[in-house]
Design a protein that fits this description.
The protein has 383 residues and is an alpha+beta fold. It contains four helices and 23 strands. Strand 20 and strand 21 form a beta hairpin.
């Protein structure tokens, strides 16, 4: 090329010729290697706590029932409120007894009339019996009088029964405590007209205390009536009370797909437990179903929509997604029923930022590098 025709100085052309080889070399260079991302790893927990499944519940009385009047009427007096301790036979509420008192008086009058008729027919029967012996009246007339006497006797019996019913109705105007216990709620107030059977109070009997929980359908085969458990009240963390599963529902709830269960507290601890307290029930499971557990943040979704965790290869530090089968979720951990071993290194947090095959730098809770010879990392989440 003639520099004089292009107008480009010879010095610029020379510099360009020197730069072209350098630019070509740079274009063919390899990209810098990816820096290994630090990740927190833990071993699945295989200690005693790993075999415990936790279920939230609340404290209930073993015997709970709504209290209602057997008859309807106007509620004129309410003697107790929610939270009241009552004894068997205490009057809790009263209806207006006017109508029942009048019905009892009417039944009394009907009984008096029926007894008077019975006395009259009884006397007539005695007279007709004497006349029949002397053949002054026919046998059929005597039998008719006997039938009248028997009918009057039955009428008197019916009147007595009606009087007893009326007296009972008058007594039903008072709502009494069936046994010692506590009124847990009130559903009616004085001045209200209530129907027969309408709940006025909710009542919890003295005695046993239980914790109502719901057991998952997938694990229902691992529970049995009489199985020992531990109960921890939210108001007393760390203090576990002994108990046993007393009752498991025969059918699952059609919406929640869980089985209602009752856990009875053992010993004298029931007296110190207040109704309505929140509690957590720890159920000891055995065998492979509760051998290991991992922290909740370690869980991920795999391609099939199931649960998985990231496991670090101890030699290459590469990640692989491992599908797992889980038990009932706890407060901080979840039992792993299958898919892991106690020696696996599981990524405990930040799994949503990782990918299959990625090389990472595993560290423990104290940010110390983890090597194949390192001791078991502390997940910092054990109870």
């Amino acid at each position: 090329m003639d520099a004089r025709r292009t107008g480009v100085p010879l010095a610029a052309l020379a510099a360009l010729a020197l730069l072209l080889p350098a630019l070509s070399a740079c274009g063919g260079a390899d990209a810098p290697a990816e820096v290994a991302r630090p990740v927190l790893v833990v071993h699945p927990d295989s200690g005693p706590e790993a075999a415990l499944s936790a279920f939230a519940g609340d404290v209930r009385a073993r015997e709970e029932s709504p209290l209602a009047f057997r008859i309807g009427g106007k509620l004129v007096k309410r003697n107790v409120d929610a939270g009241a301790q009552v004894r068997a036979g205490d009057v809790l509420a009263e209806l207006d007894p006017g109508d029942q008192r009048l019905q009892a008086q009417a039944a009394q009058a009907q009984l008096a009339a029926a007894e008077a008729e019975l006395r009259r027919t009884a006397g007539d029967r005695v007279r007709f019996e004497a006349l029949a012996r002397d053949r002054l009246v026919s046998q059929s007339a005597f039998e008719a009088q006997t039938a009248a006497w028997r009918a009057a006797d039955e009428q008197a019996r019916a009147a007595r029964a009606q009087l007893d019913v009326a007296r009972n109705q008058a007594a039903y105007a008072q709502l009494r405590a069936p046994q010692d216990g506590v009124v847990t709620a009130r559903q009616a107030e004085a001045g209200q007209v209530v129907a027969a059977g309408q709940a006025i109070f909710s009542f919890a009997a003295e005695g046993g205390r239980e914790v109502a929980i719901a057991l998952p359908e997938a694990l229902i085969g691992g529970f049995a009536i009489g199985q020992p458990v531990f109960v921890e009240l939210w108001s007393a963390p760390g203090q576990r009370l002994p108990g046993r599963i007393r009752e498991i529902a025969a059918a699952a709830d059609p919406q929640a797909r869980t089985y209602a269960a009752r856990v009875a507290l053992e010993g004298d601890v029931a007296a110190a437990v207040a109704l309505g307290q929140s509690a957590r029930v720890y159920v000891q499971q055995s065998g492979e179903r509760a051998a290991l557990r991992v922290p909740l943040p370690a869980l991920q979704r795999d391609a099939a929509g199931g649960s998985a965790v990231w496991v670090v290869d101890p030699a290459t530090h590469a990640l692989r997604s491992v599908p797992v089968t889980l038990g009932a979720y706890g407060e901080t951990h979840v039992p792993v029923l299958s898919g892991l071993s106690a020696d696996d290194w599981v990524v405990a947090a930040g799994g949503h930022l990782l990918r299959q095959g990625q090389v990472v730098a595993p560290v423990d809770r104290q940010n110390r590098p983890v090597t194949p010879a390192s001791p078991k990392p502390d997940d910092g989440m054990s109870p």
